[in-house]
Amino acid sequence: MPLDAPALGRSLNETLTLHSTLCRREVPAFQRAVQAEEPVFVACTQEQRLFSEVAGQTDGVRAQAVRFVNIRETGGWSRDAKQATPKIAALLAAAHLPEPEPVPTASYASGGQLLVIGNLDAAERAAALLEGPLHPTLFATGPGSAGGVQARRWPVLGGRLLSIEGWLGAFDVRWEAGNPIDLDLCTRCNACVAVCPENAIGLDYQVDLALCKSHRACVQACRAAGAINFDRSAELGAERFDLILDLRPADATPTFLQHALPQGYLRWDGEDPAVPLRLRELLGEFEKPRFFQYQASICAHARNETVGCSACVDICSAEAITSLKGRGEVRVEPHLCVGCGACTTVCPTGAMSYAYPRPQELGHQWRTMLQTYLAAGGKDPALLLHNRQRGLALVDELGRAAQLRLAHGVPHQVIPVALWHMASTGVELWLSAIAWGARQIVVLATEDDAPQYLQAIQDQMAVAQAVLHGLGFRGTHFVLIRPKNALDLDADLRRLGETRQHGPAQSARFAAQAAKRATLEMALEHLMANSPVAESARPPAIALPADGSPLGAVSVNTGTCTLCLACVGACPAGALQDNADERPELRFIEKNCVQCGLCAQTCPEGAIKLEPRLLLSPERKQPKVLNAAQPYVCVRCGKPFGTLQAIEAMLSRLSGHAMFQGAAAERLKMCADCRVIDIYRGTNELGIEDVPDGKNLRGLR
């Protein structure tokens, strides 16, 4: 690799020594480094295990961790390698950042109780591979091509599966055992199989009732064991297992319909040898980070059992998020959460945020990389966001192909950024990256990503791109690629250089915040302040796509709005407000609106409509009056207690009701206090003291 050590050292403000065989004859140099007090960063991931072992065997090594960063497949092995010094400096700078702060964890405990579901012969073969560390129980769904073995080596269940729920260490299985043959009493003597004239009994020792003609020869053959009883009622069974191995075809067995299966539940066609190995590894106690943080107070999911935003519920590929609309919030089951972060990406308010790493930590990484890249002389940087599994593997494959001259390799301006999952970032960090100096955000999706993730990423990109185009920044700044292999990735990345993207002339210096809306606002402020289009030449507002937009206004039909202000109580973001002086007004602060739709869903008159847009004038931060009305004053005391429009609408609707005639109708024009006084002083009203003794008063109101 053509490495410019002095230039890299200047970018990092330190003196760097270039090594070519640090893992072989130059190992003593590594040992001297780890004996020092400073942390050690090794720009090689291939020999990570070797370096870790050497550090552990070296005397006088302090407790500091040795960190590793890949500069080879990501840039050094590329036809652009001579131009990749700014990118390599950015990767090294990011490696110097501290690890994300620890977060609470979700715990699992697996004792190895395994349920194998499938035809009996296939289930027994799988159980034979796995017994020892694991303790299989079989659930037979048929005899299979050969039937089971004669020896009873494992417990066998049978019947109709009703449900499987749970996760690693806590799968609750329910089934209905309604077959005439009781598997606990059956001795597998095969007498029933031999005498059945319809061949309705298989070697899974269950009766196919569709074939059975009720000859009952099997009952006579089994009279010694008494395992067959056609009159026995169906019994419900329930048991808990740590692991599930499902051998049934996925399309024929919709046990779990979600894209991301629960941990501990594996499907197997008998071909992939990695599946039994993975099951063996799922024995013991495990922990994983709780990848999310949830703030119910700003959640836009529901108010008063009216649902507004359900973006997180809809997108979760693990079905880990459920609606609690009665409480106005959602619930996340951390044991089912796979940490994709898609819920945090589509959440308009930031009620759901990513916790590992936190948004401010991820933003600090991106800003550090871009600042280092630009300071080292790099131009037009692009961030390639990929997950740490298949996406990382594709980048590595591309680097190796480039070193063998089979591909071009990762271009010099493309900086790979490994995320836990490609769906964990969205419009607020993307626009921030553009403000920090990036010219493109490229999201790498792979074949195992859920379809709803791809749609959400495309929706977010459409919103962000509309903002930049509306501000006059030309080019395509956000790209979603879906390569099937390394050569596809190579072609996708080379196409990025065919067009030039424009961004702000001055890079922003703000830091990402924990609050999603705060980060988004700072990015918008910087982009608007550095727009290449003069303020006088810009449109008053930028229209945004309806799908995925977290920005916008609301329009109110003043002809039907009664100023009941139900929308104010429903708004989770404080965008809709009333007048603090008790004047009948509906006010709106556009900057706060998240386009959740709760106001429109709550409005009894249907007077509110959403308008996704970005208002470019300073008025977006200031309250404006959407509707105002003349107050209605109490006919008895003169105190205002409602709006003229609302009270008149109520009087009109109740004018024909028998309960609201005469004095009762007049009370509708009074405030709450005067109504009570008028009822108490009324001479033609039935009082409680007027009810004859002995009357049942429980029904009176």
Walk me through what this model shows.
With 701 residues, the chain is α/β, with parallel strands linked by helices. It has 22 helices and 31 strands. It has a five-stranded parallel sheet, covered by helices on one side. The longest helix is centred in the middle third of the chain and has 20 residues, at 451-470.
Fill in the keyword field for this structure.
701 residues, 5-stranded parallel sheet, 4-stranded parallel sheet, 19% strand, flat
Provide a compact summary of the structure.
The protein contains 22 helices and 31 strands. By secondary structure, the protein is of the alpha/beta class. A hairpin with a 2-residue loop joins strand 14 (302-303) and strand 15.
Low-confidence stretches: 697-701
Mean pLDDT metric = 91
From the alpha carbons, calculate the radius of gyration and give it in angstroms: 34 Å
The level of helicity is: 25-40%
The tally of helices reads 22
Spatial gap, N to C terminus? 88 Å
The side-by-side strand order for the widest beta sheet comes to 6-5-4-10-11
What secondary-structure arrangement, pairings included, does this model have?
Blueprint: H1 5-12, H2 27-34, E1 40-42, H3 48-57, E2 66-68, H4 72-76, H5 85-95, E3 105-110, E4 113-118, H6 120-130, E5 135-140, E6 156-158, E7 160-167, E8 170-177, H7 191-195, H8 217-221, E9 235-241, E10 243-246, E11 265-267, H9 274-281, E12 284-289, E13 292-294, E14 302-303, E15 306-307, H10 311-315, E16 321-324, E17 329-332, H11 342-346, E18 352-354, H12 359-375, E19 382-387, H13 390-403, E20 414-419, H14 427-436, E21 440-444, H15 451-470, E22 478-481, H16 486-495, H17 516-529, E23 541-543, E24 553-556, H18 566-570, E25 576-578, E26 585-588, H19 598-602, E27 608-611, E28 613-615, E29 624-628, E30 631-633, E31 640-643, H20 644-654, H21 663-667, H22 672-681
Parallel strand pairs: 1-2, 4-5, 4-10, 5-6, 10-11, 19-20, 19-21, 21-22
Antiparallel strand pairs: 3-12, 7-8, 8-9, 13-18, 14-15, 16-17, 23-28, 24-27, 25-26, 26-29, 30-31
Helix pairs in contact: 1-5, 5-12, 12-14, 13-16, 14-17
